[in-house]
Automatic annotation (TrEMBL), chains A, B:
Pfam families: NTF2 (PF02136)
Function: Has a role in nuclear-cytoplasmic transport of proteins and mRNAs.
A GO cellular component entry from the record: cytoplasm
Domain NTF2: 6-120
PANTHER family linked to this entry: NUCLEAR TRANSPORT FACTOR 2
Naturally occurring in which organism (per UniProt): Musa balbisiana
This protein's name: NTF2 domain-containing protein
C-alpha cells in the first residue's frame, strides 16, 4: 500500500463527497473525531456533519493543488495535508484553503478521520 | 496544561528560533522526525536542519496568523496547524504559508516534532 496513493485517493473521495452530498461525509468520522473549522471546535461524527451541512453555501467545488502525507507514528495513522481552492456558486473568485486530516486505520482495513483542521487562506 | 497555550508557545518558540538561528531547530527534532517541505521529504533531525539551513535566503521573519491544535490520540501527541506569512529580506511582499506539526511528548515532559509539513500558499 503506497501511502501517497492512499492519501490522494482519500482526498479525492473526500472532496467529491463534500461537493456532491455533504451529509455522506459522516461515514468518514467517528465519535472521537475532531474538526476545527475556521477556529470552531466540533467533536463527533454527528456534530461534524451538522457543522459541515450548516455552512452558508449550497453548492461548491473544491480543486486540489497539493497533497502531502506522512505516517503519524506506531498507531498506523497517516497525516494528510492539502492545499487547494474552493469555488462557491455565485462567487467570482475561488477561496484558497489549507486542510489537514489525521487518518486512523479501522479494523476493516479502511481509514477514518480522527483529526480535521480547516482554514481559509485569506489573500 | 492548556493544549492551546502549549501550541501557541511552541509555535512562537519555533519561528523565533527559525528567524534567529535556524541550526538551533535541531533540538526540536529526533531521528524519526519527518519534514515535507514544498513536497521534498526529509527524515531525521540532522537532515532536517541541513535542509532548513540550505534554504536560499539568510534572513526572514515569520508572522503567525492562526494557530489551531488538537490532541492526536492516545499517545499524548498534539497536532498544531499554523497559517501565516514569511517576509524575506529583499522581497517586497511576504509569502503566505501553512504548516502543520505533530508534537510528541518526551520523557522529560517536553515535546519534539515527529511530523512537519510546510507549504507556501501561492496567490
Amino acid at each position: 500500500m503506497d501511502p501517497d496513493a492512499v492519501a490522494k485517493a482519500f482526498v479525492e473521495h473526500y472532496y467529491r463527497t463534500f461537493d456532491s452530498s455533504r451529509a455522506a461525509l459522516g461515514g468518514l468520522y467517528q465519535d472521537a473525531s475532531m474538526l476545527t473549522f475556521e477556529g470552531d471546535k466540533i467533536q463527533g461524527a454527528a456534530a461534524i456533519v451538522a457543522k459541515l451541512s450548516s455552512l452558508p453555501f449550497q453548492q461548491c467545488a473544491h480543486a486540489i493543488a497539493t497533497v502531502d502525507c506522512q505516517p503519524s507514528g506506531p498507531s498506523g495513522g497517516m497525516l494528510v495535508f492539502v492545499s487547494g481552492s474552493l469555488q462557491l456558486v455565485g462567487e467570482q473568485h475561488p477561496l484558497k484553503f489549507s486542510q489537514m486530516f489525521h487518518l486512523m486505520p479501522t479494523p476493516q482495513g479502511s481509514f477514518y478521520v480522527l483529526n480535521d483542521i480547516f482554514r481559509l487562506n485569506y489573500a
